Amino acid sequence: MRVHLTKDGGVADYRTFTWARWRDGYQFEERAIRPKVVYGGAPRIEQRKRLLLSLAATKAFREDYHPLDDSPGISREFSAIETPKDALQFANEYGLLGLGEVPRMQLGQDMDGAEQVFYWLEEAQRLRHVYRLSDLCQSKDVRGLGKMIYWTRGSVTVTFPNGIRRAIVHSGNNSQWLNVWKRGDVFGPAKLFIAEEYNSQIDKMASPLLLLDSRSELKPHISTASLLGAIWLEFGEVASGVRKQTVCEYCGLVMDVTNNRSHKRVHDNCSLRVRMARYRQAQKGIKQNAKTKTRKR
């Protein structure tokens, strides 16, 4: 296995996650699926039609790219998926999730590279829930969290805007935290839910590595084998503050500002476009004034 350099010191050749996509090359298909699961030695007979995402026969040209470098905010974009149409749009932009490389998704079903839309929607909803709590925690929104976190005798639950209710603390599970938190606390339970949800979803999707930086110092690194793993990794880094992102005030797209000055608000390219637009406007004004003076003469 090749040991890569890290990005420290401006080194370009560092270990980064690479994924393949076929832009606008995906389609829906319905397929009857019989799970290859055996119960008590007898094959399961159940067979249902499932909506799948797959590569079209007339797929576009393959493109390899680096999602976590080229598309900051991809995890938040994925979390916004609520319908099959949203999932298809995301696939046409970023590719399939690589569910065949996710151990908890390997249910013994042969998908031939296609992916069930149901799992896309389920993962997006889970990510949407933890992003909701994380955003409220980072903005220190006590009122917003108070509308979701509920304390009762011996338990704490969270209810999301879509009505889904999940237990955070109850008898026999995390009850020790009731002795740590002050009753009515909303931040502790919210962060515990985020941590447990993240840990359960990222389980077996990521692997720790050691890399060398430009000074030959060892650096820890986390690698993944699927786009879904990369999406959850990005969320974990954003939620924990390891990765810092903000929205560009010019184009409205998410940009990574982890290694930039704290007040950066615009992409470098967008800043250049703004300066060039102002320059062209100034030149246009100069020419217009010159024409006006010529006419007066």
Précis, in short:
The chain has about 300 residues and is α+β, with helices and mostly antiparallel strands.
SSE order and pairing:
Layout: E1 19-22, E2 26-33, E3 38-39, E4 42-43, E5 48-55, E6 62-65, H1 67-70, H2 74-79, H3 84-94, E7 115-116, H4 117-138, H5 142-146, E8 149-152, E9 155-159, E10 165-169, H6 187-202, E11 206-212, E12 218-224, H7 227-240, E13 245-247, E14 254-256, H8 268-296
Antiparallel strand pairs: 1-6, 2-5, 3-4, 5-7, 8-9, 9-10, 11-12, 13-14
Helix pairs in contact: 4-6
Q: Give the uncertain stretches in residue-range form.
A: none
Percent of residues in helices: 25-40%
The number of E-state strands comes to: 14
The main β sheet shows up as:
3 strands, antiparallel
* Helix and strand element order: EEEEEEHHHEHHEEEHEEHEEH
Q: Class by helix and strand content?
A: alpha+beta
Measured by DSSP, the beta-strand proportion falls in 15-25%
Our count of helices gives 8
Shape category: globular
**Strand order within the widest beta sheet:** 2-5-7
* End-to-end separation: 77 Å
On the 0-100 scale, what is the average pLDDT?
83
Oligomeric state as shown: single chain
Computed over alpha carbons, the radius of gyration is 25 Å
